[in-house]
């Protein structure tokens, strides 16, 4: 690479260096490669046409937003409709979540997550999600890897991962004659 | 923008690239490290059944990642197991294949595995095989009747290593923990 002139104060930016309300053409030496191989980002709006609420038991539903089979990553909104529980499950990958509506907590921890609150969970933790809100909760989850579900006696029931979430979505679409939204597949 | 066609510097000296956040990196990063994988200095062979052993090289509990060398000492099998993460392996010695696929890995060969596949590792080589692996957990191990026996992940690997260390009065090597 040709030596580039160093900015006067490396590491000194205090604000985005451009405020121009226009698309700025940025240098791209490998444009042909990007044109051929670069994966498009996705957009999934709020409508149920784009992704429906898929029942997860009687009191909960999942709105699937993304499936990444290469990384075993899946993103969705979990909705628990009234006070209730998603029973104890153990993660073997990482979890990121932001509360959207109502509140939820894990019986294992002392915080309560409300709208805008952010949480993470690391591999190896088992926890029990509850909402005590009359109106239940909604939260956005971004998860990686295996998610093991247990019954109330601690018996292992099933491991959920990207394949389960995809199957959950696709089976619902099939049963209701809905088209599969390719935007969900990264 | 210019493109790079060869390494842009051949100076055998450290060039200060002026990275503005170096102090933060030094304060917060676990840092890269070198682990001697050829000898037992950094990590011993830990038996994995009678015919195999594992040399643990790295544990990353944040991403459920682990690296090791699997040594199958003679013709043998690592029974059917199911991956939920991504696996990168290089065959170092001997040869190895999976009953599910039509290739045979020989030294230098690269094996890539992706989430959602189960397979059965077999070596028919008289000296077995050695495989370097960089793996993302978990891995579900089944018995010969397709019963799930255990889900193995970075914590199983750490326990496997530390139990051996304890049994042999060795101090766990902090270099293996990212």
Automatic annotation (TrEMBL), chain A:
<dbReference type="GO" id="GO:0051213">
    <property type="term" value="F:dioxygenase activity"/>
</dbReference>
<keyword id="KW-0223">Dioxygenase</keyword>
<dbReference type="InterPro" id="IPR011051">
    <property type="entry name" value="RmlC_Cupin_sf"/>
</dbReference>
<dbReference type="InterPro" id="IPR014710">
    <property type="entry name" value="RmlC-like_jellyroll"/>
</dbReference>
<protein>
    <submittedName>
        <fullName>2,4'-dihydroxyacetophenone dioxygenase family protein</fullName>
    </submittedName>
</protein>
<keyword id="KW-0560">Oxidoreductase</keyword>
UniProtKB/TrEMBL annotation, chain B:
<dbReference type="InterPro" id="IPR011051">
    <property type="entry name" value="RmlC_Cupin_sf"/>
</dbReference>
<protein>
    <submittedName>
        <fullName>2,4'-dihydroxyacetophenone dioxygenase family protein</fullName>
    </submittedName>
</protein>
<dbReference type="InterPro" id="IPR014710">
    <property type="entry name" value="RmlC-like_jellyroll"/>
</dbReference>
<keyword id="KW-0560">Oxidoreductase</keyword>
<keyword id="KW-0223">Dioxygenase</keyword>
<dbReference type="GO" id="GO:0051213">
    <property type="term" value="F:dioxygenase activity"/>
</dbReference>
